[in-house]
Amino acid sequence: MIVLGIETSCDETATAIVTSDRRILADVILSQTDDHRPFGGVVPEIAARAHLQHIERLTTQAMDEAGLRFDQLDAVAATCGPGLIGGVMVGATFGKAVAFAANKPFLAINHLEGHALAARLSDDVAFPYLLLLASGGHCQLLAVEGVGHYKRLGTTIDDAAGEGFDKVAKMAGLPYPGGPAVEAAARTGDPARFALPRPMKGRPDCDFSFSGLKNAVRLVVETLPKPLSGCDVADLCASFQAAVADMVADRTKRAIRAFPAAKTLVAAGGVAANQTLRATLTQVAAENGLAFAAPPGRLCTDNAAMIAWAGVERFRLGLTDGLDFAPRPRWPLAGGN
Ligand code: KG4
Ligand code: ZN
């Protein structure tokens, strides 16, 4: 089975072609980072226009790289939410048009389900598993029992994890997007130099909070001489990253207890590309008798291979959608946000 995937929910225009035996035949990503950098974050209208400008060319490129004609596809999958609605509409409408023109089934994919199932594409992880989904808009712990069967064990009560990285980067004068910049700066920093709080640590539930940590970073920045020295930035990033890893480890341990059926701990979403976090979670999994899996960085941050793969998973179960499927700016995977 061969599925074309389309992803346009944020600032990456992406197309990919994936097979049911877990081969990625093409994986094309155009990042709009340079378009948004002057604004310090994603501007929805700029993103939507850029998706519109590039989606057709990038789809042709993916088909060429895979050496396929549209009639050789089995289905077309497109992200239909959640995300910036202008961009989502571009990808969803384009995907429907390709499906209609090629007379193939259409699959409306929840972007979060793309992240949630990506480790089954990269590592063939079996159900059930415990999932940490940490991205720019979300930070959740989910019990994944099967395709479409997600139970939320915990979530953030304020900011998403990636939002924390992005805001700390801004305070430290690092470029957008913040996650990779903070990780790079932290490499030479001292994670013990600044004593930052670990909100929610030790609580009996599996929820997260990042806004108090972000404010603590702001207060530290106010005490430092300006402009910040390279050493201060490195120590600040390392201290923040260590606090996040510590908090996430604590919350994940709780979730392991809450979902004893899990055999594997899976990390996904853009923040799961972070090497310090991956090392911490590898250790947490090992200490609790679980395997650990996380897709390679390219499959953690937004991409279309995970959307095509979620399409494979849903198509196998006969879960196709009509061309009247309405894009959704909000679309929780398992209740709530
Ligand atoms: O999953 P993703 O690409 O897009 C969303 O669906 O939100 O996640 C983007 C988020 C951004 O906040 C970015 O700063 C963060 O993931 N991120 C990272 C790293 N790479 C991306 N955070 C920490 N360390 C990284 N290496
Ligand atoms: Zn994402």
Describe the protein's architecture and organization.
- The protein is of the alpha/beta class.
- The protein has 2 domains: 2-116 and 299-315, Nucleotidyltransferase, domain 5, CATH 3.30.420.40; 126-294, ATPase, nucleotide binding domain (Nucleotidyltransferase, domain 5), CATH 3.30.420.
- It contains 11 helices and 10 strands.
- The chain has helices at residues 33-36, 44-66, 85-102, 111-123, 161-171, 178-186, 211-223, 230-258, 275-287, 297-300, 305-316, and strands spanning 2-7, 12-19, 24-31, 75-81, 106-110, 129-134, 139-146, 149-155, 264-268, 291-293.
- The strands form 2 sheets. A 5-stranded mixed β-sheet has the order 3-2-1-4-5, with helices on both faces. Strands 8-7-6-9-10 form a 5-stranded mixed β-sheet, sandwiched between helices.
- β6 and β7 form a beta hairpin.
- α2 packs parallel to α3, α4 crosses α11 and α5 (161-171) runs parallel beside α7.
- It is globular and about 60 Å long.
- The mean pLDDT is 97.
